[in-house]
Amino acid sequence: MSRSLLTLSASLLVALAACDGGSGGIVDPGGEDCPLNPSQVNVAGNLRAVGEGCVQDRYTSELWVRGGWAYTGTWSRRGATGLGDALKVWDVTGSAPVLRDSVIVADAGTLGDVQVSDDGRLLVVATEGGRGSIVVYDLANPRKPQEIARHSSANTQSGVHTAELARVGGAGGKLYAFLSITSRGSVVTVDLSDPRNPREVWTQQTGSPFTHDVFVRDGILFTAGWNAGTTVWDIGGGGRGGTPASPVRLAEIRTANGKVHNLWWYHDPSGARRYLFVGEEGPQQTGVVSSGDIHVVDVGSANWAGAREVAFYTVPNAGTHNFWVDEPSGILYAAYYTGGVRALDVRGDLGACTEAQKTDLRDDVYGGTVRLCDLGKMGREAGRALAGGGAVSVWGVQMVGSTLYASDMLNGLWKIDVSPLKR
Fold first, then answer.
1. What pTM value is reported for the model?
2. Is residue 66 part of a domain?
3. SS3 helix, strand, coil % of the chain, rounded to 5?
4. What is the CA radius of gyration of the chain?
């Protein structure tokens, strides 16, 4: 699926960085080999892409941005040599991301989640395709992450697909990593209060047959259990006495067609916590076609037992992956693989629509048909990016200020101006 080769000089720099463990200070050759550039993707109606950091040697996976630096993972194998074992380090202070380093992670074939801790001190990377693990880096120098620990066990050996960092117990609480072990359909919780000595405190089968991701907020853990739906756990904020080491199950929520991949519990500017957004990941062919809808669950005022699906959003011939929500503005940004990025207005009552704005959705997993509000028919799409201007496969999104960063499996890292949607 590779569209062009890196220049010889760039390839040599990558090789040198691999030899010295990622301290080579790789400089982006300028993007001259990128198959797409901002002018090509800025078609009519699109949010404007202002810059691109090109990656052609590997497929790009997840991203995290903090303090002028961005970190992106790599996925699987691209071409003959592009193994998904490189953590890319970017300077994003300018209009276009500039590649500054490429840290090679030993015994890994795919890097899933990458995330910086809330205090900016640590970077955690999930690994698959070799020794399933999380790798913990010190960010005293954010340009050159330094490995300080690697955690692997019998519970993670088959591969850590995602790793979400969350502090439980308020600002002074403990930092944990919540790991999704896709092939086992399980979650593993790791205490990172001593980051040089990570310690497992809980593991549980939560998915059928997979567990793809988790979401943690206000002492509530949500697990994305594929056809088992979404499970909600009290780990300190649900009033049932749960802790990260001993969660208490609060509810199980099913959405049409299962395949629950990712989640976001939305807190709107009024303080309401009414909606849970559920991403469905269907079959895809990288860079060609994808599938899967966004499902909207009304949870009332965190009354988990009464949670029900009320709406959905679909893009023909494209499927969603990961979300980021600009909560003050009420805009959900969804990575939509081959459909680029889609921005949805999620303010107000998403379950109130006319009959003409509803769609019958066939539920092939749980059976029957459900009639739901269709956010597309309701005019809730607020914008698009990287859509209709060339081949893309957008994996993840993150907003910082008025810039949305998007990781694109085929092309690398994009900066997108979303100031028109800021409120």
1. 0.92
2. yes
3. 5, 45, 45
4. 20
CA angle 101, 410, 12 (to 5 degrees): 40
Give the residue-averaged pLDDT of 223-245: 97
DSSP conformation class of 355: G
Q: Give the domain CATH number at 168.
A: 2.130.10.10
Residue 376 phi, psi dihedral angles, 5° rounding: -65, -50
What's the domain count of the chain?
1
The confidence score (pLDDT) of residue 33 equals 66
Tokens of 89: 């380090």
For residue 135, give every residue at least 6 positions away whose Cβ sits within 8 Å of its Cβ, in sequence order, or none.
105, 124, 125, 127, 147, 149, 150
Both tokens of 264, joined, read: 């976001």
Residue in the structure block whose two tokens are 């992106």: 72
Distance separating alpha carbons of residues 294 and 312, to the nearest angstrom: 5
Residue 1 resides in a domain:
no
Backbone angles phi, psi at 357, to 5 degrees: -95, 10
The beta-strand segments (E) located in 182-320 are 186-191, 199-205, 213-217, 220-224, 230-234, 248-253, 260-266, 275-280, 294-298, 308-313
How far is Cα 75 from Cα 125, in angstroms, rounded to an integer?
Answer: 12
Instruction: Give the helix ranges, DSSP H, for 29-188.
Output: 38-41
Element (H, E) at 9: helix 8-19
Each residue of 164-195: pLDDT tens digit? 999 998 778 999 999 999 999 999 999 999 99
Q: Which two tokens stand for residue 237?
A: 């904020």
Sign of CA dihedral 326, 75, 183, 138: negative
Q: How far apart are CA 107 and CA 422, in angstroms?
A: 42
The whole domain housing 117 covers: 8-421
Cβ contacts of 20 within 8 Å, gap of 6 or more: none
Question: Distance between CA atoms of 52 and 389, rounded to whole angstroms?
Answer: 14
| Backbone angle region of 191, left / alpha / beta, with phi > 0 → left and psi within -120 to 50 → alpha | beta
- Rounded to the nearest 10°, the torsion over CA 193, 196, 200, 206 is 80
Backbone angles phi, psi at 281, to 5 degrees: -105, 110
Provide mean pLDDT across the span 372-391.
Answer: 96
27 within a domain of the structure (yes/no): yes
- Structural contact between residues 386 and 394, judged by C-beta atoms closer than 8 angstroms: yes
